[in-house]
Amino acid sequence: MDTTVKGVVLKTTEYKDNDKLLTILTLEKGKILVKARGVKKSTSKLKAFCQSFCFADFELASSGAGYVLTGVNEIENFYNLTTNIDKFSYAFCVLELVDKICAENQEYISIFIDMLKTLQQMTKDNVDCRLVLCKFILSLLNHEGFNINLNKCSNCKSPLVSDLYFDLNRGDVLCPACKALDSIILEKSVFSALKILSGCDFDRLSTIKLSNGIIEKTLSFLVKNINFKYEIKINSIFL
Ligand SMILES: [Zn+2]
């Protein structure tokens, strides 16, 4: 039976001579794999849409246990993201993270919505893509139940004031008295940046003013955290 889903292409894989296999995160069905037949031929009408970042209504037909692409109505192609190497690498990292974290055929409505907000913010010239990626990683951690408590030591519940530590195993902030042997130091500036980002919506990220060094350190901290959680290696240039 034919169906239409709203989705973003996360990844494309070569498949047979003229076909591609699309990995799409959809609003309605979560992450799905879709066969796009004949789209490597120059005459294919669907060719232009079978690329990462394409946000569209995808028309699908069921085929065995999977789907076959029958039509596309493009909503946005985020073309601007692919014309700037910096923007592209941060935006690509977003797709990579979503692909690795989302399992097939499970709903991820909140992640889908935040991914779209993230890509939309990244197209803007007055927003630092690194801050958008930080915000996206924080929101991913929240949606997956790994939110970082930034109010008190997660062990003794005392307020977080002076030296702070972070336990990668538990994903918790700890005070000096509770830190474990393998806890890492969480710099106060990074802690403050995390607080600011947590309390800021995607569409207000352009108002955040942080130094280059603090943005780099905060991104590096969050990438380390999410890599540790999911045992994935997202782009090592961020570490
Ligand atoms: Zn404590």
Lay out the secondary structure.
Blueprint: E1 2-15, E2 19-26, E3 30-36, E4 55-63, E5 66-76, H1 85-101, H2 109-122, H3 129-143, E6 164-167, E7 172-174, E8 184-186, H4 188-198, H5 212-230
Parallel strand pairs: 3-5
Antiparallel strand pairs: 1-2, 1-4, 2-3, 4-5, 6-7, 6-8
Helix pairs in contact: 1-2, 1-3, 2-3, 3-5, 4-5
Counted up, domains total: 2
CATH fold call of the largest domain: de novo design (two linked rop proteins)
Give the termini separation.
Answer: 46 Å
Give the low-pLDDT segments. Answer: none
Q: Biggest sheet, open or closed, and with what strands and sense?
A: 5 strands, mixed, barrel
Tell how many strands the DSSP assignment holds: 8
List bound small molecules.
zinc ion
Please, could you describe this protein's structure?
This protein folds into two domains: 2-76, Beta Barrel (OB fold (Dihydrolipoamide Acetyltransferase, E2P)); 79-238, Recombination protein O, C-terminal domain (de novo design (two linked rop proteins)), CATH 1.20.1440. The chain has five helices and eight strands. It has helices at residues 85-101, 109-122, 129-143, 188-198, 212-230; strands at residues 2-15, 19-26, 30-36, 55-63, 66-76, 164-167, 172-174, 184-186. The longest helix has 19 residues, at 212-230. It binds zinc ion. Zinc ion (ZN) binds at residues 153, 155-156, 158, 174-175, 177-178. Residues 153, 155-156, 158, 174-175, 177-178 line the site of zinc ion.
